[in-house]
Amino acid sequence: MAVLRRVKRPRVDIEVERVSKYFKKEESLSTELADVSDSQVSINAIKAMEAPEFFNYVESRTIDLLPVDRKLEDNNRFPPNFVGIYSKVRLMRSKIITPVDTVGCASLPLTLNEKYGILKDQIKPLHYRLQLLVALMLSAQTKDETNAIAMNNLMDYCMNNIGIKEGITLEALLQIEEKQLDTLIHPVGFHRKKAAYIKRAMPMLQEEFGGDVPTTIEGFNSLPGVGNKIGFLALQKSWGIVAGIGVDVHVDRLSKMWRWVDAKKCKTPEHTRKALEEWVPRELWNEINPLLVGFGQVICPSRGKRCDLCLANDICNNVDRKLVKLRNFNESPASLRGDHSQLLTHLQHTLVASGSAAPRIKKEETE
């Protein structure tokens, strides 16, 4: 078993300029950084790990959803509604299965490999890291379910046309012509650009990174079509390094909607990332992405939000009161992405316990 050397980090005093409208201007803020990102890990030790040890290691350092009973302690750095909303979103996420949980970029390689007969403990970590990177590169402006179709096309072609039993590997992607790659990933948005990016990136991985993915955010950002969002998410699940918050459209939209960041100043997801990192506790930097992405996919999408099912509808500043009043638990499950049956049951029990009239849930919704 590879042994990783953990070094106790000293207290670090940093100067943080508070720019959020929630905070008064202060000269400085002394903060002790609990840096979960880099306890002097040995990249070579990680590269030497077999699948079971690798996945256990990464998952222990990048827990997607922390326990619901793990309380957030409020402090004056947080926006006023942060603890209340975040805690309720965490509870909701524990009761719904969303696309990001099954076919999101981190889980998609596992789902695909299992479909093709390769179990989790049989996947070479080297191949998982590459498949994760490719999935992330394809994911921009694309739903997880659509991204899964493109990745399945690619997996099938690599195995059955090129004859590589491991599926998507660096060797396989180097062999595929760009035009053929574009055809395979056609379902995703901007497929032509993404095909070109992937074809340019693969030789770079081979020549500059020893046939593996980069180990730093600078390395990821050197690849065509890769920015901080992809880089931070790839670092987390490739090496167990949490160096920044991965901000996609859901995290960006919800953070602005709840006024966790100043929408006037945060014109891009990158602006939002920097604003969030000023005050979001480091221990939440990994969790906040899958937490808000899943919530944004199922309960609070940009169109067709379900305030009637949201546990935070009593404190959300953007709640649609008409939807809450017209609450209908008997609506077809097909109206939502993912599985929300446990949430519906929880809502019914909560309403009964509070003495409110709980709409009856159809049997098929809880099966």
TrEMBL record:
Belongs to the Nth/MutY family. InterPro entries: DNA_glycosylase, HhH-GPD_domain, HhH_base_excis_C, NTH1. GO terms for cellular component: mitochondrion; nucleus. Its main location: nucleus. Signal peptide: none annotated. Keywords: DNA damage, DNA repair, Glycosidase, Hydrolase, Lyase, Mitochondrion, Nucleus. The gene is NTG1. It catalyses: 2'-deoxyribonucleotide-(2'-deoxyribose 5'-phosphate)-2'-deoxyribonucleotide-DNA = a 3'-end 2'-deoxyribonucleotide-(2,3-dehydro-2,3-deoxyribose 5'-phosphate)-DNA + a 5'-end 5'-phospho-2'-deoxyribonucleoside-DNA + H(+). HAMAP family: Endonuclease_III_Nth. The active site is at K237. This is Endonuclease III homolog. Residues 138-298 form the HhH-GPD domain. It is found in: Nucleus; Mitochondrion. One of its GO terms (biological process) is nucleotide-excision repair. The keyword DNA repair applies. One of its GO terms (molecular function) is DNA-(apurinic or apyrimidinic site) endonuclease activity. The keyword Cell membrane does not apply.
